[in-house]
Design brief:
80% helix; Serine Threonine Protein Phosphatase 5, Tetratricopeptide repeat; mainly alpha
Length: 271
């Protein structure tokens, strides 16, 4: 009796599982049909219904990832393909999941991740030529691309080098300007020295210098030169002037005396 009850329980459980699997497969089939019609939104709905019944169904996960890829929803697609390779029960399923994951990274230009994805795909299926080609292409693009950190460092170094170069140029210009000023000053000094030398060698200047040296500083010490013939000496001129002045004074005194005699004197008025 107990045995028959146990068998009946397993049969009912198996029937329920089969019924659920059937629903899951029906949703997957519906989703595949919608993909062929390029109705990706409806396909996504069908695959999600299948996953609501079986969250780790690798076929539903893989096909949903392809639907996201067709809609260019690369973040969602990468999540679904990653889940697929985790839930996959065969190398073939893992190979396809990693291959499509590599395709997503290629679209995002994350070539390092794409190389790793294709490499994992080849581990599960080394004979797939399409995966091998994509792996080689991703590796080539990665080799041509500098890592962002190194690129930033190079950019900063280039900018620093440019600033240092500009500073050096400014210093050189300042040095050139100072050198030109110094050269001009030296030329002016040499020109002044040349003019002084020329003046020293000029006989005319030597004569003037000699004349200035021979000229007495005190006018009272000048030597009296003898008068030329027909000219009065300074003493004679002085004597003649004094005689004229005395004569003019005598005449003026006489005139004043006559004026005094003719002018009446007024007395002081008393108030």
């Amino acid at each position: 009796m107990k045995y028959s009850l146990l068998v009946g329980f397993y049969l009912s459980l198996l029937s329920a599982v089969n019924a659920q699997d059937k629903k899951v497969n029906n949703h997957i089939y519906e989703g595949n049909s919608k993909v062929k019609e390029e109705s990706f939104i409806d396909a996504e709905k069908a695959y999600r219904k299948a996953l609501s019944l079986a969250p780790e169904e690798s076929k539903a996960l893989f096909n949903l990832g392809n639907t996201h890829y067709q809609e260019e929803q690369y973040e969602e697609a990468s999540q679904r393909f990653f889940q697929t390779q985790k839930a996959a029960s065969s190398k073939d399923e893992k190979h396809r999941a990693f291959h499509n994951l590599g395709n997503v990274y290629m679209q995002k230009k994350e070539y390092e991740k794409a190389v790793e994805a294709y490499k994992n795909a080849l581990r599960n299926n080394p004979s797939d030529e399409e995966t091998r080609y994509n792996y080689a292409l991703a590796k080539e693009l990665l080799d041509k691309e500098e890592p962002p950190q190194e690129q930033e460092q190079d950019d900063n170094k280039d900018q620093q080098d440019q600033q240092e170069k500009e500073q050096e140029q400014e210093k050189d210009q300042d040095k050139e300007g100072d050198q030109e000023s110094e050269n001009q000053q030296n030329q002016d000094d040499q020109q002044d020295e040349g003019e002084e030398s020329d003046n020293e060698g000029d006989p005319k200047n030597e004569g003037e210098q000699q004349k200035n040296q021979n000229q007495p500083n005190n006018p009272q010490e000048e030597k009296q030169q003898p008068p030329k013939q027909g000219e009065l000496s300074p003493q004679q001129v002085q004597s003649l002037l004094e005689a004229m002045n005395n004569q003019e004074k005598d005449v003026q005194d006489k005139v004043n005396a006559k004026k005094v005699k003719g002018v009446p004197v007024r007395g002081k008025k008393d108030w």
